[in-house]
Prior knowledge:
By secondary structure, this protein is mainly beta. It is built from 5 helices and 22 strands.
Amino acid sequence: xxxxxxxxxxxxxxxxxxxxxxxxxxxxxxxxxxxxxxxxxxxxxxxxxxxxxxxxxxxxxxxxxxxxxxxxxxxxxxxxxxxxxxxxxxxxxxxxxxxxxxxxxxxxxxxxxxxxxxxxxxxxxxxxxxxxxxxxxxxxxxxxxxxxxxxxxxxxxxxxxxxxxxxxxxxxxxxxxxxxxxxxxxxxxxxxxxxxxxxxxxxxxxxxxxxxxxxxxxxxxxxxxxxxxxxxxxxxxxxxxxxxxxxxxxxxxxxxxxxxxxxxxxxxxxxxxxxxxxxxxxxxxxxxxxxxxxxxxxxxxxxxxxxxxxxxxxxxxxxxxxxxxxxxxxxxxxxxxxxxxxxxxxxxxxxxxxxxxxxxxxxxxxxxxxxxxxxxxxxxxxxxxxxxxxxxxxxxxxxx
Length: 400
């Protein structure tokens, strides 16, 4: 018996955790309606009828382990709560789609409405009489006093009032017969302010350290591996320009230069068994220059800026080397791609200091070998010289 009770309790916990969490507050209790009664749902693309009164509010949200939270399940749960409170309407004030707010659920917040022909429309409040100088005429023929907030190609957004409660609606123009804006200049100014870019151009200069991430040869001595490892690390300098587009998107250009060098004493034997010793040295430089496409956004207080870039462009490689008195240069070029993530703290309106992480990739299939007297092409066949590297940089950005 005890095991059966434990099983039922566990099953109940599992069932509850799979269902969305519901919050409800009733301000005007009414007799509950039948479970099959019709409940009308209004969203921001609709206007609530004049004979509607708010009797409470309801929210259906992710409970943390919710799995049954598709739109039909969530809206039906809200309807059931409305019926139990005696309401026959729901006005959705906020709708979060899956992927928003860190949840995979549909989530809603709204009013529970009582829509009844016996309800007399209330007079406009003193606030509405002072502020609502515009109007919208909907297809049903109703003229709605309001304050128009935005006008787009396909929609009109406005604030209106029903029975003392201020509401926001974003009506498709296909549902509007006519509309009137008392102060079109003020509306245009508000729209221009909303669409105003945080900046037009950002110019950044950075410096830091980089690490090449290509694998080292396996068939060489440990001493030589240590030598090659030194060549994979070194300083990197860079500059970038971002041009602001609409909605936070950016296009830009980017350049950075990596250099890594090493010098050591070494020895070797030639094919005939002759012994050689002396200095060996290498100086690697890798340049990346190309374009970027990404996003950039400033925080509401304009003190923090984040940007993300996809990089594409050109990489070139050069190794100035000396081995036992023989000097030569290896060079090559290839296509490069990468990603970048950066952050700036805005010390003034136009100047930010911050850090940037980027990863660029490219690989060479052949080299140009130049010993000062002859130049030849060395084809690596199926092998590749990997140029990929991680860049960690700090610097300053100028915004204007």
